[in-house]
Amino acid sequence: MKTLNIGDISINKVLDGVERFPAVNAFPDIDIEIFNQHKSWMHSFYDFNSQMLILSMHSYLIQTPSLNILIDTCIGNDKNRVGQGPIYKTNEGILSHWNNRSSNYLENLEAYELTLEDIDIVMCTHMHADHVGWNTRLVDDRWVPTFPNAKYLFSPLELDSLQKESPNPFDQYLRLVYDDSVLPIIQSGQAEMIEESTDLGRNINLIKSPGHSPGHYCLEVNSKKGNAMLTGDILHNPIQVTCPSMSTMFCDDPQQSNQTRIKLVDELTDSNTIVLAAHFADTSAGVIESTNDSRMFKLI
Hints:
The protein is α/β, with parallel strands linked by helices and about 300 residues long. The protein has helices at about 25, 35, 40, 85-90, 90-95, 105-110, 130, 155-160, 170-190, 240, 255-270, and strands at about 5, 10-20, 45, 50-65, 70, 120-125, 135-140, 140-145, 150-155, 190-195, 205-210, 215-225, 225-230, 275, 285-290, 295-300. It contains 11 helices and 16 strands. The strands form 4 sheets. Strands 1, 2, 3, 4, 5, 6, 9 and 10 form an 8-stranded mixed sheet that branches. A 4-stranded mixed sheet has the order 11-12-13-14, with no helix packed on it. Strands 7-8 form a two-stranded antiparallel sheet. The radius of gyration is 18 Å and the shape is globular. About 45% of the residues are buried.
């Protein structure tokens, strides 16, 4: 992804890795034929031979004149991610490589001429395992905050979800990530709960977007010269632009997730707002455009 400039704010992508995931596992109710109907623009996000979604795991680095803000921290390295729950058992062949993994994420971040100490704010759109992993890193067998000077913004609803049982089969991962990727941040005193008054700057707005998880947030970046929307996991794959009423197996409340997604996609269609989703592959950045009978996601 090329650097996006929204007024005096710049946005870059920090890659943690690219993965493939069976479409029928991610979307249990999907008709695979829908991908073939949109083959002209879906090839960057879907492997038609293997019927796999192509998923990018990345953060967004937002730089304002005064702040370096990191949105979502991906999977992380050295984490224990072997489980016994239904999500893991169904997808063991895909998810097992999240266990004790090693990626070049920190090197990719430092390529923007930043040190770990330069990050001022870490904002997690939600607290699933692939969005909080680099909150911490393993140093001398201890989990320590990766960004020692950063304020970590957490949704209190997300934190509450991590600390109690839920019907979500992804809950097993939620319990794992609390111990190694959230609790050390709380213990270090760097955690701050998101409130109505939380301010990331005059041109950056936090938007409540529940459904995929209880306290999910999107971020809107505005200027007179353009707008961008960081959608977190409201959109996992661009096929949901065409079929916004289609949640993934990872959604905590599929019905609410659908409602949130339908509203967001409607608002973004033909708006020229740059969409920055958490897992869209290729250059990731694009816009939602209407077609004769549907919608498409167009990379920029």
